[in-house]
């Protein structure tokens, strides 16, 4: 009887050990996957590219982001907000404003649990240039109060710093506002 218990223990002990290892590895994988899903994935440059392609096709920037559907983006259900000028995508909040037919602004603000690890971007896009500002993640309470076309002073008070201007005509980075490269 004790011999059969020992044989049974020798069979179940490795099975139990394998089960514990599998459960542990799975929990690590699941936690890593959750963290990856929570990380904001910034796509401001792709959004800018799409806006510029729309401008090239239609001769001006769209009134709202929904106008990109069917022209640049494939048609699918997207959760637009703020009169179709805002969109949440992969833990980033994008807020678009058409200033004139040939100038627009775009905010890219990280959201989600890991938002502090990603930057906030503000872009002023024209057919030939793009001025960009970058800063830390804005507090979620400020998202409702952001200005569509803020002044340099307002951008500075939000902690955003101007980056080198992108010369879209020559596809090179030009000098920034204060001559910095």
Report on this model:
- By secondary structure, this protein is of the alpha+beta class.
- The chain folds into two domains: 1-38; 44-173, no CATH class.
- It contains four helices and nine strands, in the order H-H-E-E-E-E-E-E-H-H-E-E-E.
- The chain is elongated, with a radius of gyration of 25 Å.
- The protein is 34% helix and 23% strand.
Q: How is this structure best summarized?
A:
The chain is α+β, with helices and mostly antiparallel strands and 181 residues long.
What is the element layout, followed by pairings?
Elements: H1 2-38, H2 44-58, E1 80-81, E2 86-89, E3 92-100, E4 103-110, E5 120-125, E6 129-135, H3 140-143, H4 152-157, E7 161-162, E8 166-167, E9 172-173
Antiparallel strand pairs: 1-2, 2-3, 3-4, 4-5, 5-6, 6-7, 6-8, 8-9
